[in-house]
Specification:
The protein is mainly alpha-helical and about 110 residues long. It is about 55% helix and about 10% strand. β1 and β2 form a beta hairpin.
Amino acid sequence: MTLPSRLRWLWLTLAVVLLDRATKAWFESQTTEGWRHELIHNFVYLVHSRNPGLAFGILADSASTGTRILLIVGSALAARPAARSIPLDSLCSSAARQEISPIASSTAQ
């Protein structure tokens, strides 16, 4: 059984996110905040720091629940058109589609 291309990308994305979170948790447990290590002389440093806001510290000082709700609702609305463009049958196996298709054709009549 082969996975549809979009489902493979979904699994790959999930694996990358989980690996990212695991390495961050490990790094935070092994170092203290402010820890710094030079990887490439005068160019690349590995630094343990905290970012309480969004990307690049946006809204770091905002503890407003309303702002968080607005961001969650806005994100959901922004993701909605993308979710509608994914055909449901691309997420199902061919066996599941064969079982669904007689039901769908009988209800369409």
